[in-house]
Fold these 2 entries.
Entry 1:
Amino acid sequence: MAQSQTFTPRLALEYASRYNDNLLISPAQKKEDFSEVLSPGVGFLYGQPQRTYISLDYLAELERFNSFREFDANNEYVKLDTQAKFDRLTMRLMHSFHDVAGPNSEISMWARERRNETTLNSEYRLNSKTSMGLDCRQLFNDYVTTGMVNSRKFIVGGTLYYHLFPKTDLLGQFNHGWVNVQSGANAVYEEVNVGFRGQLTGKIVGIAKVGYQHREFDLATVATLNEPVAAIDLEAKLTDRISVNIEVARDIEPSGSQLNDSYSKTDLSLAGHYRLFRSVTLSAGGLYSDHDYKKEYAGYVLTCFDAWVGVNYEMTKWLQLGAYYRYEMRSMRLSARGSRTLSVYTCASTIKSHHPSKKNAHIQSFIDAEACRSKRQGAIFFMAPVAVVDRVGDDLLYDFADRNPTGVSHWLGSSRRRCPGGRRIPHSPI
């Protein structure tokens, strides 16, 4: 029986107060200040999230500083997500855009970045045991600030899935990519991954893949890179009240300011959720990120740490309220040149409309919807100095691939988490 198409509007509003102890991440001339951030958002979802749908979200982030008004920012985020599912074929198109300003650790300046990312995924079921996928992705990083290096990244890849158990697939993947930079050495790379997706045990679901990347540059003076890579996103439902999310990512990215330089990034995210009552959930989590530069900034290591704690109250089936407290720290170790750090303290509250369905919207076509996707709910917050609750599903407002490092909350896709140049986009509390 065909399912009826539904239209679900989404609204959100977040207010935050923040203290930053080193606005420019400078080792000497530190500038500290308080700021107020107002983040209104609007969006909609039309269709059936487990089959065919279209989703569009817009979020504005308005930050105003008390003393250093030159750092005031009007940031914008847009995300489009649409999927079409047929008998054997599933296709999904995603596009995200952000225009944000914030501190950049590579240049110790306030930098503005415009980022466009487009991903097209398709999967065709060959038979009851196997399916194959074709993936394409492009990522444009454009900096308005003078002294930064714009870049273009293109990736095409193929994946073969083998249906090992009723709710588990093995996967093998090959990717080929190009990285073009505004000035300096361009790169070409090949990457091989193996892993699984679906239900690992009776209590753990998700996707995990590990592999190896070989990257060559078009300048003989830049050494070839051979690095391990990984993308892991798992949820463990330990009891009816307790769940834990674990994400690990490792990749190679071009430097945003140094010619002919790249860095390997390693990210680890952990979040726990405890349902105290039927409508009240307590949450806590954190992110650790390490960036190791290879050439021009050899010896330069950027470390990001993020911790948050919060509470979420489902007021009605359409409305959630909540609040969170977040601490962010970035430390840049510059070998013999010393180090510099930045700390940000945030208290925020949010109110948000909430789709009444308890299921995550996007269900992989390879497995039963109930088993495949984690049942994470979006968090909504309002008026309080403590924190969030749950990571928002891909279909819900605020699930943005990127958020400003100075932003109230940060949304991402697990494989896209990054903290380049000090810009952090960790696991969102909301």
Entry 2:
Amino acid sequence: MPRYALLPSVLAIFLGTMASPVPAAEAPAGTVTMAPTVIEGKFRPRSSGDTAVVSAFDPAAALYAMTHTVFEGEAWGEIPELGLSVQDMTPFAGKWSGNKQIFWNASVKPVFQWDFAAPKAKSLTFDMTAAPDYGTITIRLFCFRKTPYGTYMLKGTLQRIYDGYATSVRRKTTAITLLGAYNNCYGSDAYRLIFSFTATAPGRRYGGIDRIVVTK
């Protein structure tokens, strides 16, 4: 959904023809939202192969410390080589957190990864954007435990498939639960998120990420 493609949708709002956006759920009580500033480059997303299995984790990797419980996607900032940019969402009146999102032009790069630490995380909720020209995003979470030798071992993996298509621009939510008898992800020392894009129809080559909410 290029920025210029938003103009017809804005016009539709004023004409009253667009369906009402789904209101955003409020963050749980006690959450702490990070300041809306761009995080340091070494902690930002980077290029990734479309890897189904990650068996090793670089112990020298820069892990973004998720000390707050709400991470604003726009804090990743502008990363042209990944097709990521910050987009103003105020024209859509859909209560996007901070009135901004990370807009993903997946035709530039259809997959990227982000490494972070979130002690005692029980679940991750992804507040996303859906639109007529948005596609499907597979969200893979790789969970690692640090060994006494300073290396990381893969404990488990979790996955959600998010359908970004909608007939109007709106917010949608999906979640990954880390608690469970078989996934071995709760209590991990490091996490890797891999976002992989699939164009489900011609012209659907975009995605949008508003925020990630951590439940502890």
